[in-house]
């Protein structure tokens, strides 16, 4: 019985021990992978729990090499941390975070491509056991932007096999990037006989990848307008990115099937005298050689341009362009029609000249033959006088005579115009243009120019005459078909009347010019000089002051006399009488000595003396007054002065 009880107790203790061991354990949680860019810092987290909270938990980190070898790189507990020496992570890793029910983080700095390995976190709970977790470190490098190049020589649609049309290259990517080709917005996949994509992958010494992709294609004519580009897709932490290259257009060669022929210049309608450029263009590539024919005649031309200079209405017709395919030797034709608008010279009725009598009526017409509607305008001396094909002149007068110009234009085509002229003469007795000043004043012995302007048809003949048979000198005469301008000069010695006579077969007219001779007369005045010595202050010599009476300028007086001139003469005589009275009064008072020269002899003492000299403007003689007031002739006066004391 006792033995049975002991056995039952042993079994119970054993089962209790097994249950404890089943509950007491270590748990470790880690991410499957950690992704970083090349050169960045990677952090691998190891989360663990220990059920029995032992005093010491040991953490160890391992890596799995490329050859599948397990190497420890770190171990430590709450009291110590040790990085294994001699490995690739010796100087670039660190671990932080220790304790129960906690986590530790392995930090790897400056990640390299060779660091892309599997890392193991081993947790040793001592009495409760150990456990480990695994994380894969993935490293990424984004490639450079792809570079695309196209085939420069061009591709023919006649090639039987796909031709290389471009190359795309992406450098320095990790992992290896992928390249996809696109035409416009559609991707191109390998298709036997149509599309072939050849890819070349190169791993450089740094471990990065360079991918080159060549596109081979059977091109069609429509590809001349297409754009091609490549797209590079590559992995990055947490996803995938794509980068597109520049777009290129390739040169496609294809045969000609049709031609386009047109008149490039001038734009719109063509008129006579223009230079015409006819262009020809094929729908093939490259452009084939062209041949131009005009009305079945082959013409020389530039590669695709035909130039026709100074075209006329005879240039109308068909222009044909022929293209020759140098591969198949097939000809392709294209054509256009050339029509040249024209305007013939103006036709006037009556033409050139027309003579009409005064009071008559004229109806003239002007038009020109044209391929387009015309419009006519009449001008005289640059001024518009009528509009339309007909010019009507009623009740003719001399003012209607002259040259009428008709201008015929094509309104719908600029530059297409012609002109004609009609000279109209109006018959009649001459007319003389009135002079602005028929009466003119002229100084004697001078010549005066006279002009006479007469008109009429036939052209008037101008003759000159004068009232006193004076000589009339003809200077110039300018004639037109119905007008004449005569200029003469007349020497005036007295009043004269000159006559201009204009005559033709219809009569004679005259006009007179009255020339008045003007006589110049000069009124004389006395010039009086008064010499008065000043009282000396610091000098003995006397100071002389001279006063001169202004002389009246000569006046022009008409020969036949005038009341105004007579009044002026009377006033001058009165002034002379007053002046003589003043001088006589001074003489009687004893204050006026008489002398000849009117100058004081400075060698003789002369104190308080006054010398008066009177001279006439019309004579060299001097009139001196004697002491008695009698007038002496110049011979009796001598050269001495008479001094009169105050």
UniProtKB/TrEMBL annotation:
It comes from Salvelinus namaycush. This is Cell surface glycoprotein MUC18-like isoform X2. It is a single-pass membrane protein. SUPFAM superfamilies: Immunoglobulin. The keyword NAD does not apply. Residues 627-646 are annotated as: Disordered. Gene3D superfamilies: Immunoglobulins. Residues 24-137, 146-249, 255-334, 345-423, 430-516 form the Ig-like domain. It is found in: Membrane. Residues 629-639 have a biased composition (Basic and acidic residues). The gene is LOC120018424. Keywords: Disulfide bond, Membrane, Signal, Transmembrane, Transmembrane helix. Residues 1-24 form the signal peptide. The chain crosses the membrane at residues 564-587. One of its GO terms (cellular component) is membrane. Its main location: membrane. The keyword Isomerase does not apply.
């Amino acid at each position: 019985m006792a033995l049975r009880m002991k056995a039952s107790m042993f079994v119970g203790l054993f089962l209790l021990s097994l249950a404890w061991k089943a509950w007491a354990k270590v748990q470790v949680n880690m991410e499957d992978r950690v992704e970083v860019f090349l050169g960045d810092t990677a952090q691998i987290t190891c989360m663990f729990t220990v059920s029995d909270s032992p005093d010491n938990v040991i953490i160890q980190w391992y890596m799995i090499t490329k050859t599948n070898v397990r190497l420890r790189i770190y171990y430590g507990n709450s009291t110590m941390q040790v990085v294994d020496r001699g490995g690739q992570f010796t100087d670039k890793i660190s671990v932080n975070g220790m304790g129960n029910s906690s986590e530790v983080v392995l930090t790897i700095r400056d990640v390299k491509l060779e660091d892309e390995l599997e890392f193991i976190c081993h947790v040793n709970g001592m009495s409760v056991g150990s456990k480990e977790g695994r994380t894969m470190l993935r490293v990424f490098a984004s490639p450079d932007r792809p570079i695309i190049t196209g085939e420069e020589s061009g591709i023919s649609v006649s090639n039987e096999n796909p031709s290389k049309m471009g190359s795309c290259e992406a450098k320095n990517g990790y992992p290896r990037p992928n390249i996809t080709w696109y035409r416009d917005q559609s991707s191109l996949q390998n298709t036997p006989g149509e599309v072939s994509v050849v890819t070349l992958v190169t791993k450089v010494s740094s471990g990065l990848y360079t991918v080159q992709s060549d596109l081979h294609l059977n091109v069609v004519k429509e590809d001349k307008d297409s754009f091609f580009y490549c797209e590079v897709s590559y992995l990055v932490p947490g996803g995938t990115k794509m980068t597109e290259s520049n777009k290129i257009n390739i040169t496609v060669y294809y045969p000609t099937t049709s031609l386009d022929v047109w008149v490039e210049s001038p734009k719109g309608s063509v008129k006579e005298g223009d230079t015409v450029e006819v262009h020809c263009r094929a729908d093939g590539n490259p452009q084939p050689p062209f041949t131009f024919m005009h009305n079945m005649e082959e013409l020389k031309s530039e590669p695709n341009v035909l130039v026709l200079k100074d075209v006329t209405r005879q240039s109308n017709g068909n222009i044909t362009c022929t293209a020759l395919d140098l591969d198949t030797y097939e000809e392709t034709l294209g054509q256009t029609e050339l029509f040249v608008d024209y305007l013939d010279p103006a036709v006037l009725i009556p033409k050139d000249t027309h003579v009409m009598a005064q009071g008559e009526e004229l109806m003239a017409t002007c038009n020109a033959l044209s391929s387009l509607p015309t419009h006519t305008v009449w001008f005289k001396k640059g001024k518009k006088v009528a509009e339309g094909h007909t010019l009507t002149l009623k009740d003719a007068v001399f003012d209607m005579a002259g040259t009428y110009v008709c201008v015929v234009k094509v309104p719908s085509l600029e530059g297409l115009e012609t002109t004609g002229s009609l000279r109209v003469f109006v018959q009649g007795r001459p007319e003389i243009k009135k002079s602005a000043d028929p009466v003119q004043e002229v100084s004697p012995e001078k010549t005066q120019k006279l002009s006479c302007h007469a008109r009429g048809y036939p052209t008037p003949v101008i003759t000159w005459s004068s009232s006193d048979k004076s000589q009339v000198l003809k200077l110039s005469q300018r004639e037109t078909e119905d007008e004449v301008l005569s200029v003469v000069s007349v020497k005036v010695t007295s009043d004269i009347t000159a006559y201009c006579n204009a005559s033709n077969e219809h009569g004679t007219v005259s006009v007179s010019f009255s020339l008045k001779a003007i006589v110049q007369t000069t009124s004389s005045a006395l010039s009086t000089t008064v010499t008065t010595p000043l009282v000396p202050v610091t000098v003995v010599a006397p100071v002389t002051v001279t006063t001169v009476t202004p002389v009246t300028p000569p006046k022009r007086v008409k020969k036949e006399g005038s009341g105004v001139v007579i009044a002026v003469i009377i006033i001058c005589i009165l002034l002379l009488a007053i002046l003589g009275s003043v001088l006589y009064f001074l003489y009687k008072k004893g204050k006026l000595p008489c002398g000849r020269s009117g100058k004081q002899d400075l060698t003789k003492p002369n104190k308080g003396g006054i010398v008066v000299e009177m001279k006439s403007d019309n004579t060299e003689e001097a009139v001196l007054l004697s002491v008695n007031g009698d007038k002496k002739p110049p011979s009796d006066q001598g050269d001495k002065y008479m001094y009169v004391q105050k």
